């Protein structure tokens, strides 16, 4: 295979793998922000929390971090339920969710970060896994398992959430709450309960994405802030509230970043990614799959 | 009033005055000597900041156990600068104007030293700093001093060892790729590397920076590989150091020598996390167990540091920053003791004209406040097995390539062969 062809194929594969990870970190925002209209700016903090949970169990017992995150996702689900309940009682119920709710989630972001600093210190943490240092090669094409495994689990998670939302009663209720809460009430469904469970689902996905993050790169408590812009960009690019859109948007940004890094220089990657976002919004303001 | 009556009264007055003076003097001597600083205790560089603080507190305990400096116990007043340069000027103003500290020193790193400089210059303060790279090149302040052993031309001295080791290879390398994070330290390190590249007549085939929050580095490594360089010089911070080393291993980078300016592998966290992936990488270190015989007092300090670091969850090895943080305070101690006071002008003058015995060896300062002689060690990692931290406490996984007096071997090349 010619070097340039291999370079192009590798760039596409690297972009897809990276996009898979971006989809996982953005999935929760797509649910909370895109469907529930809850501006959960603390989403990256829960990703980092997921990273540390995976780190603790991996460090103490040697269990696979991604497996740990999937098994412990009910804990994040419960945390999400509790958090939404507080948010609802303190802000949403009183119609103060816009600015004060935003401040609330900012507060959660900083409290989580500082708590992690106090408990774990500020050193970078990494995990060990059987696939972490393994690269599968097909000729000149590389498949680093450190990215392949999170990609596969991420795609499975996105597809699972999409099927859940479109093929279950509760899922359809979540989609309905995003469109018309009053209509949902008229059908005898409590929209607050639906939002509570859907928000909990978004936090559970953040926990799993946190395990992906610590498999891919070292993590310290404040690293989550770097993903705030990205998760909202993916969500908006894909179309607010569209799960498929989140996946496609994440893959598009991943490939754009990888291509730019490979052929034009990595410092251009954010500019190209966000330029792409702006261009998409100029022609399609609701995003790629937005309604 | 007769002379007979006046003299005893005068005597009593003088006696009382002398006692009062003595008491005042004693009270002054008993007042603590307050040293103020900002330190990164949260934020991206907090790992280093906390490690430096432990070292400085060990120094404080040691000094106070010996009776303090000039008979005064040493006290620290410090605040968390959050690794945020914007907090620094206000923080030092508070230390000087509200806390009324006697002296100030810097926190860790270029990013928080540079913003403090205008205030130090405005108030004519002697400013002892911790690991700023080439900060004074912009200020030319004659009361600035810096403890990192990069030499009088810091950017050049910092990168010199990599090129000395590279040019010792046979045949000599001809092409180089330069890559680093889009941040202050990598910019300066790459600036220094470019000076050597020009001096040695190397051809630059790749010269690019990347955003610090990059997630996947393999596209960068593949782009570098496509240019087929003899050498790859990388200047990076811990997360990207880890990302680049992983990507280099995943892609199977074929070059003769890789590394140079990676921040991170000096600390136990990355040493243990990357483990065998570091084999073959050439990088700078400031202390390695291979050189323990050359720094006899350091072992004693490291024992104290490692015991405290384990409790506080920071770098358990402490080879990189802590000895120099301690040495910075030793320099200050010796200068104050020698000048018998806290006069900033006298301290600065003394520090410019004398050398200091510290745990990291003899320290002398050049006109710009940097070390008069560079002493950054360029090493190559090899023979690392598994991820145990203990192997880093013993000899055998590091070869010192440069500088000459500390050299323990030559570079193994090409890079992929050196990995085995």
Description:
- The complex is a heterodimer of chains A (291) and B (420).
- Chain A has 12 helices and 2 strands.
- By secondary structure, chain A is an all-alpha fold.
- Chain A has a single domain (3-283), classed as ABC transporter involved in vitamin B12 uptake, BtuC, CATH 1.10.3470.
- The longest helix of chain A is centred in the N-terminal third of the chain and has 33 residues, at 3-35.
- Chain A is globular.
- The mean pLDDT of chain A is 90.
- By secondary structure, chain B is α/β, with parallel strands linked by helices.
- Chain B has helices spanning 3-30, 46-65, 88-97, 110-113, 117-122, 136-139, 154-167, 184-200, 218-226, 238-251, 268-274, 298-312, 322-339, 344-353, 415-418, and strands at 33-39, 74-80, 103-108, 127-130, 144-146, 175-181, 203-210, 231-236, 257-262, 282-285, 355-358, 361-364, 377-381, 398-402.
- Chain B contains 15 helices and 14 strands.
- In chain B, α2 (46-65) packs across α13 (322-339), α7 (154-167) packs across α8 (184-200) and α13 (322-339) packs across α14.
- In chain B, the strands form 3 sheets. A 7-stranded mixed beta sheet of chain B has the order 7-6-8-9-10-13-14. In chain B, strands 2-1-3-4-5 form a 5-stranded parallel beta sheet, with helices on both faces. In chain B, strands 11-12 form a two-stranded antiparallel ribbon.
- Chain B has 3 domains: 1-29; 30-151 and 296-364, Rossmann fold; 154-294 and 376-418, Rossmann fold (3-Layer(aba) Sandwich), CATH 3.40.50.2300.
- Classes of the chains: A mainly alpha (291), B alpha/beta (420).
- At the A-B interface, α1, α5 and α11 of A face α2, β7, α9, α10 and α11 of B.
């Amino acid at each position: 295979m010619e070097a340039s062809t291999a370079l192009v194929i590798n760039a596409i594969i690297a972009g897809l793998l990276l996009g898979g990870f971006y989809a996982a970190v953005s999935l929760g925002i797509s649910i909370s922000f895109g469907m529930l209209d809850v501006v959960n700016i603390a989403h990256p903090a829960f990703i980092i929390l997921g990273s540390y949970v995976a780190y603790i169990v991996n460090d103490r017992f040697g269990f696979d971090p991604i497996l740990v995150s999937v098994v412990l996702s009910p804990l994040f689900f419960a945390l999400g339920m509790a958090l939404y309940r507080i948010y609802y009682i303190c802000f949403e119920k009183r119609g103060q969710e816009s600015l004060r709710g935003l401040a609330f989630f900012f507060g959660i972001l900083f409290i989580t970060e500082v708590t992690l600093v106090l408990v774990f210190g500020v050193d970078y943490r990494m995990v060990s896994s059987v696939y972490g240092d393994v690269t599968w090669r097909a000729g000149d094409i590389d498949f680093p398992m450190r990215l392949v495994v999170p990609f596969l689990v991420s795609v499975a998670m996105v597809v699972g959430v999409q099927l859940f939302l479109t093929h279950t009663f509760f899922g359809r209720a979540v989609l309905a709450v995003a469109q018309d809460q009053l209509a949902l009430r008229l059908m005898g469904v409590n929209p607050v309960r639906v939002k509570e469970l859907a928000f909990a689902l978004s936090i559970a996905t953040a926990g799993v994405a946190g395990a992906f993050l610590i498999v891919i790169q070292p993590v310290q408590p404040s690293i989550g802030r770097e993903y705030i812009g990205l998760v909202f960009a993916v969500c908006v690019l894909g179309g607010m509230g569209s799960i498929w859109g989140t996946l496609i948007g994440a893959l598009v940004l991943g490939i754009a970043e990888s291509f730019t890094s490979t052929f034009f220089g990595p410092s251009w990657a954010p500019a190209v990614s966000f330029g792409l976002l702006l261009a998409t919004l100029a022609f399609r303001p609701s995003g790629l799959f937005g309604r | 009033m007769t002379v007979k009556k006046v003299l005893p009264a005068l005597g009593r007055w003088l006696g009382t005055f002398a006692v009062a003076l003595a008491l005042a003097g004693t009270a002054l001597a008993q007042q603590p000597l307050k040293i103020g600083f900002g330190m990164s205790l949260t934020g991206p560089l907090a790992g280093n900041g906390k490690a430096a603080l432990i070292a400085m507190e060990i120094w404080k305990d040691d000094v106070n156990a010996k009776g303090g400096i000039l008979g005064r116990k040493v006290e620290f007043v410090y605040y968390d600068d959050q690794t945020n340069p914007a907090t620094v000027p206000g923080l030092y103003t508070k230390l000087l104007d509200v806390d009324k500290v006697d002296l100030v020193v810097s926190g860790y790193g270029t990013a928080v030293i540079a913003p403090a400089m205008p205030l130090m210059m405005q108030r004519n303060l002697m400013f002892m700093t911790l690991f700023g790279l080439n900060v004074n090149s912009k200020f030319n302040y004659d009361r600035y001093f810096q403890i990192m052993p990069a030499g009088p031309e810091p950017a050049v001295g910092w990168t010199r060892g990599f090129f000395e080791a590279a040019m010792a290879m046979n045949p000599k390398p001809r092409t180089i790729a330069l890559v680093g994070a889009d941040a202050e330290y990598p910019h300066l390190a790459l600036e220094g590397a470019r000076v050597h590249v020009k001096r040695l007549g190397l051809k630059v085939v790749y010269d690019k920076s990347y955003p610090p929050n990059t997630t996947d580095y393999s596209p960068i490594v593949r782009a570098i590989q496509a240019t087929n360089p003899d050498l790859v010089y990388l200047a990076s911070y811990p997360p990207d150091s880890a990302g680049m080393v992983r990507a280099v291993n995943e892609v199977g980078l074929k070059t003769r020598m890789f590394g140079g300016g990676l921040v991170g592998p000096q600390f136990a966290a990355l040493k243990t996390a990357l483990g065998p992936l570091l084999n073959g990488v050439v990088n700078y270190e400031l202390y390695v167990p291979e050189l323990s015989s050359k720094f006899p007092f350091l072992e004693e300090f490291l024992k104290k540091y490692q015991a405290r670091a384990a409790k506080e969850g920071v770098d358990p090895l402490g080879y990189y920053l802590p000895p120099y943080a301690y040495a910075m305070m030793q320099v200050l101690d010796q200068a104050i003791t020698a000048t018998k006071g806290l006069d900033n002008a006298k301290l600065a003058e003394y520090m410019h004209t004398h050398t200091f015995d510290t745990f990291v060896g003899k320290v002398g300062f050049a006109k710009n406040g940097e070390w008069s002689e560079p002493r950054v060690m360029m090493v190559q990692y090899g023979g690392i097995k598994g991820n145990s931290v203990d192997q880093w406490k013993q000899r055998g996984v590091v070869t010192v390539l440069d500088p000459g007096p500390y050299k323990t071997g030559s570079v193994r090349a090409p890079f992929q062969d050196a990995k085995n």
